[in-house]
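Figure 6 in text form: structure in, sequence out.
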């Protein structure tokens, strides 16, 4: 089988996401409410902190930038990679999502949201995630918490374990 050199010169476009699921000392997780999802009528417009990497930006650098943009907090270095989640093309191009560990946030942490992008934040008990997030988001978040608990890493496809 030969390779078409076009695949190297003009590769398909893909999104690279860099995400985190910060926790407070009680084990609640930080979720942010996304204005665009709320405006579209999504009944569960909440998600993890993070976003898409820019061109020539590593996922770790993207997480540092997005984390500070979405919370006002600077994490000097993201922790270990907990979850990799492949998402098929649909409404958006296919994506590769990297979810990193972050330090536990003190209970009195002040979060500063970016105007026009996020409308609220809250620390949510893991058992209540399905009240805030999409089914896929809940699967991904629970995989993150499991990876933390077991000291391991999970590869997912649309939130489902691979293999």
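Output sequence:
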């Amino acid at each position: 089988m030969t390779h078409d050199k076009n695949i190297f010169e003009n590769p398909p476009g893909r999104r690279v996401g860099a995400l985190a699921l910060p926790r407070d000392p009680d084990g609640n997780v930080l979720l942010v409410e996304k204005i665009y999802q709320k405006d579209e009528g999504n009944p569960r417009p909440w998600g993890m902190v993070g976003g898409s990497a820019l061109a020539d930006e590593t996922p770790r650098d993207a997480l540092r930038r997005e984390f500070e943009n979405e919370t006002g907090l600077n994490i000097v270095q993201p922790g270990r990679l907990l979850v990799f989640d492949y998402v098929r093309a649909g409404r958006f191009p296919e994506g590769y999502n990297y979810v990193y560990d972050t330090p536990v946030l003190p209970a009195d942490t002040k979060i500063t949201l970016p105007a026009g992008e996020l409308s609220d934040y809250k620390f949510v008990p893991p058992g209540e995630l399905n009240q805030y997030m999409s089914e896929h988001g809940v699967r991904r978040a629970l995989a993150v918490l499991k990876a933390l608990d077991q000291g391991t890493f999970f590869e997912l496809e649309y939130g489902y374990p691979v293999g």
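Caption detail: The beta strands are 15-20, 29-34, 46-47, 49-52, 81-87, 95-100, 118-124, 154-157, 160-161.
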